Amino acid sequence: MKKMSSAPSPFGMAALDLFASALGAFILIAVVIFPMIGKAVPDIPAPPAPIIMAVPAPDSVVCPVCPMCPVVAAVTEPIACPVCPACPVPEPVPVTICPEVAVPDPVECPVCPPVPAQVICPVCPPAPPAVICPEPAPAPIQVDAPHFRFPHLDIIIALDITNSMSGQVANLKAEVEQLAVLLNRISPSFGIGMVAFGDRRWESPLYLFPLRELSGPATNRDAFRTFVNGLSVGMGTGRGSNPDSPEAFYDALSAASGMTWRQRSERRVVVMVTDNPAYSDEIDRSILVATGIGRPEGHRVSTVYVKTGSGNQPATEEFLRNVAEAGGGQYVQDVGGSLTVNLLLSLF
After folding, report:
1. DSSP H helical segments within 189-257, as ranges?
2. Average pLDDT of span 182-192
3. Residue closest to 202 by CA, chosen among 159, 158, 166, 235
4. N or C: fewer beta carbons within 10 Å in the chain?
5. What is the number of alpha carbons within 13 Å of residue 260 lying toward its C-beta?
């Protein structure tokens, strides 16, 4: 029988080394892993969803989700930061999106946090509106009506109707209605008489409308309107003439003084409207008549100087001032206004 060899086999030793190495690796892994068994592994945060911003699209757009989709929809919702005007949010532009894809919600400002309505931004507060200081309005005039109302009023208008006074005759015709309305507003009752006078060399130098109450019966207003509308310059000349400047001032003033005032009238005014004085031999008598008219309480004689022809005549102005002073009335110098205004000024 052959005797077995006692020398070690190389294959047996290699297998033993491999087993030992594997056992060592297992023990090392077990030492590292086993302590972690049973502990929860923390969740890894997901990356933030990208903010979808509206971007301009060309005329021909392919749907980014399904390129074969032929139908597109427009998203034009406005995008604006509610706080900061400088927030870098693009303006809304049309964007084509496949109709099968949900339209994104309005994009919020990526810089400024959402804020409630009507909040003033602490960084960029709105500037106060520009204040334009207007011109100060004049204070309204407080008028105490009783202080601007005449008592019961009578007025006799003595109007020169020579050729140079055509403008004043036309004004009276145009304003006869307004004159009646005005006098009705400033007095509880009023009466009007009139003397139309020309030159003393005329065949008919005077035309009279006896004083009547015009604030009462309508027939009196109609009669006065008819008289005024019938006036014309030079209407009483006839076979007479008017070769000089002075007019029948004295005759007209005397005729006015002879008219009957209303019993209840408290203010009685004769107004002489002319562009020339009385004749030289009648100047003193004219002033004397004016003094007599203005002597009683509430009576007065006023004059209105109408500049015609060559303009201001110092002699005429002086004469009319003296008549008004003697009669306790007003001297009014016409500046091209209405006859109604001149008459109103002469009443104060």
Report:
1. 218-229, 249-257
2. 92
3. 235
4. N
5. 5
* β-bridge pairing 190-197 and 328-333: unpaired
Sign of CA dihedral 320, 302, 282, 294: negative
Provide φ and ψ at 197, rounded to 5°.
Answer: -130, 150
Phi, psi (degrees; rounded to nearest 5) at 210: -60, 145
pLDDT of residue 160 exceeding 60, the answer is: yes
- Output the pTM of the full model: 0.59
How is 133-202 classified by DSSP, letter by letter?
-PPPPPPPP---GGGG--SSEEEEEEEE-SGGGHHHHHHHHHHHHHHHHHHHHHSSSEEEEEEEE--TTS
User: Which two tokens mark 182?
Assistant: 């005005």
Beta bridge partners of 190: 153
Q: How many CB atoms lie within 10 A of CB 325?
A: 17
Domain ranges of the chain: 147-346
Q: Report the amino acid identity of residue 127.
A: A
The answer regarding whether domain 147-346 maps to CATH 3.40.50.410 reads yes
Beta bridge partners of 247: 278
Burial annotation 139-159 (CB, 10 A radius, 16+ → b, else e): eeeeeeeeeeebebbbbbbbb
Dump pLDDT digits (tens) for 269-306. 999 999 999 999 999 999 999 999 999 999 999 999 99
Backbone angles phi, psi at 310, to 5 degrees: -85, 5
Distance CA 181, CA 262 (A): 19
The CA-atom distances, in angstroms, between 317 and each of 49, 179, 277, 338 are 100, 26, 8, 19
In the predicted structure, residue 2 carries a pLDDT above the cut 80 = no
Say if CB 165 and CB 159 are below 8 A apart: yes
The Cα–Cα gap between 121 and 124 comes to 6
Count CA within 13 A, CB hemisphere, residue 207.
20
